Amino acid sequence: MSRRVGGVLAARHGWCRSDEVIRFAVPCTRSSIRFDVNGLSWEGRAGGGSVAAGVGRVATAVEDMVSASSDHDNRLPPPKVVCFGPGPQAQIMQARPAEDADARFTWVLTSHRLALLAEVPPPTEEAEDSGDSIWQKARKFGVGVRDFSRDVVDILQDKKLGEYPPNEPIPVAPVAVRAEFPVQQVRAVNRTNRKLPGGYAPRKVFALRVELADGSGLDVLSPTEENVARLEAMAFGRQ
Fold it and tell me: What is the pTM of this model?
């Protein structure tokens, strides 16, 4: 079976309404979603403290000095998104993904709603083929976050047409809704800055903040202000 296409196309094909416009989509994995929520760890587990509350503490300063003295190349790239809120009961925590490291998620903002979608895994027998199976090759190819727009460009440039039989529909991954917030629950969308914990490079990043009615929300991160400005324009339908 050919590799199934996910991301924006999967959301458009299996979830969107006919009159719904996708503003932007952020493909991610469980490891690229982090949490700045009181009572939760950075990874989203119970018992942690707010990252924002602890950034100025002495322990963080010590960590910064250790990180600064280490090889820059060994530091982690920033996560794709950070969920923030006053506590585990915040609205945004409805979207906390399950502990499935292999799951592929997409945060989608549309004209109607904000949602976290998960690609439905393929049937088990696909994963039981030999090490040279197409599915396993696709998983190796897709480690980390897939850039859906780049996949589409590659397909249009004939770089990946060999993966799909001619005269047959390209297989699209079905999606399941992990959380969904109507647009009426989105209180604000604006640009902000965020400082990440030690161990990341860069630590100071730009973000597009999608804030829900209770003050919790989602920061979509980018190392450049230009990218966030473009995301903001897309969120408001200007691009």
Answer: 0.74
